[in-house]
Automatic annotation (TrEMBL):
Its EC number is 2.5.1.7. Its main location: cytoplasm. The modification 2-(S-cysteinyl)pyruvic acid O-phosphothioketal is found at C116. This is UDP-N-acetylglucosamine 1-carboxyvinyltransferase. The active site is at C116 (proton donor). Gene3D superfamilies: Enolpyruvate transferase domain (3.65.10.10). The gene is murA. Phosphoenolpyruvate binds at K22, N23. SUPFAM superfamilies: EPT/RTPC-like.
Length: 420
């Protein structure tokens, strides 16, 4: 079984370049199903999730050529509308094929999607929205079956919560619908804006992405396009925290600081300095003071991202005092707590709240990456810990961090991946 071994308490230095965003590239790859033409994507990260979604597209009949960081997709021969269970149960984002396939072919069959076990993650908003666009939906033991009689019809859709995935699915479905769709209480994440930019490059008419009201005027057909994926704000934030917890000075390049404002604010509040340049951020910690405790409440964008909660918690394990974390997005996103405790962290959980009372030292231990961001949190903790930490269940980390070992080694970390 493969493990990562980290020897802690090394100071990091130098630069690390951020890859394209996992959460932007997945819906954008799926969006290419809306056209028969060729689409070219640049800055596509080499991730297990990207491999999985491209296999889903190929299983539907698409031609996918994925060389380096460029992906060329041709959808002329897409004919199937059923996604195989083996892929869908691996990855949450596979639910996004519903919108494009319904819009282009009038039907789609999908088993219930998998992904990290961070919550129940229902898809009611996706389904309700598709019904409002005219689809008929039937659920049985094989999964979800959706059909439309002819073209979908534009409609007003109000999302009970600003779901990222539902906003993306409905936005894609509405591009080929007859008439105007308004998505109210839409998610405002940068990845939504990136998807809207791709759709508009394909000839769609999507306005207001990045605000809570998105207006889509349906068009008859979409054509091929080229698009460069935005940098991964969560990967960037994870490296900044690795720099801060090891009291290092590191520069994170190919990133957009504006997408990470709440994380940068909290880092500064904790005593770290973040210098923002065009497309780069440098974190630096001067002096030997303990980290100041800061409270974190996860919220939809532009609030503090849930995908950075566990990494920030790892950082707070060494604070001088108590930091309160409130997780408002997912009901089971404290799985890293038990693992951090094995490293000596003092954390109490009460429902949606975790109270982290910092200790002066963390210790290396044998831990597991219980989900993607939990894995990142454990690496961050391990970099600062005394002794050696062994991290297992790496398939979660492989979903979302490109060349993790290579990038940390470049920063001077003592980190290896071994087969034990
Ligand atoms: C591939 C991808 O982009 N994943 C991201 C996406 O996940 P994902 O799109 O799955 O997350 P959502 O924004 O949909 O989920 C937010 C909340 O809405 C709830 N909900 C969602 C849909 C629905 O039909 N009904 C419902 O109740 C969820 O249970 C959750 O409590 O946004 C999350 C929130 O920023 C991130 O943590 C994930 O990294
Ligand atoms: C939860 C995440 O991803 P997914 O929605 O793909 O499970 C994540 O990126 O932290």
């Amino acid at each position: 079984m493969e493990k990562i071994i980290v020897s802690g308490q090394q100071t990091l230095s130098g630069e690390v370049a951020i890859s394209g965003a996992k959460n932007a590239v997945l819906p954008i790859i799926v969006a290419t199903l809306l056209t028969e033409d060729r689409c070219t994507l640049y800055d596509v990260p080499r991730l297990a999730d990207v491999q999985t979604i491209s296999e889903v597209l190929q299983s539907l009949g698409a031609k996918v050529d994925y060389q380096g960081h460029t992906m060329v997709i041709e959808g002329a021969e897409v004919s199937k509308t059923e996604a195989p269970y083996e892929y869908v149960q691996k990855m949450r984002a596979s639910v996004l094929i519903m919108g494009p396939l319904l819009a282009r072919f009038g039907r789609v069959n999908l088993s219930m999607p998998g992904g990290c076990a961070i919550g129940t993650r229902p898809i009611d908003l996706h389904l309700k929205g598709l019904e409002l666009l005219g689809a008929t939906i039937h659920i049985d033991e094989d999964g979800v079956h959706a059909e439309s009689n002819g073209r979908l019809h534009g409609n007003d859709i109000f999302l009970r919560v600003p779901s990222v995935g539902a906003t993306e699915n409905l936005m894609m479905a509405a591009t080929l619908a007859d008439g105007v769709t308004r998505i109210e209480n839409a998610a405002e994440e940068p990845e939504i804006v990136d998807l809207a930019n791709m759709l508009n490059a394909m000839g769609a008419d999507v306005r207001g992405a990045g605000t809570s009201m998105i207006r889509i005027t349906g068009v008859d057909r979409l054509h091929g396009a080229s698009h460069t994926i935005i940098p991964d704000r969560i990967e960037a934030g994870s490296y900044l925290l690795a720099g801060a917890i090891t009291k290092s000075r590191i520069k994170v390049t190919n990133c957009i600081a504006d997408h990470l404002r709440p994380v940068l604010d909290k880092l500064e509040e904790s005593g770290a300095k973040v210098i923002v340049d065009a497309e780069a951020m440098t974190v630096e910690v001067i002096g030997g003071d303990r980290i100041r405790p800061v409270n974190i409440k996860t919220l939809p964008y532009p609030g503090f991202p849930t995908d950075m909660q566990s990494q920030f918690m790892a950082y707070m394990c060494l604070a001088e005092g108590t930091a309160n974390f409130t997780e408002t997005i997912f009901e089971n996103r404290f799985m890293h707590v038990d693992e951090l405790r094995k490293m000596g962290a003092n954390i109490q959980i009460d429902g949606k709240n975790a109270f982290v009372t910092g200790t002066p030292v963390l210790y290396g231990a044998d831990v597991k990456a219980t989900d993607l961001r939990a894995g990142a949190a454990l690496i961050i903790a391990a970099l600062a810990a005394e002794g050696e930490t062994t991290i297992g269940q790496l398939h979660h980390l492989d979903r979302g961090y490109e060349d993790l070992i290579g990038k940390f080694k470049q920063l001077g970390a003592k980190i290896e991946r071994v087969d034990q």
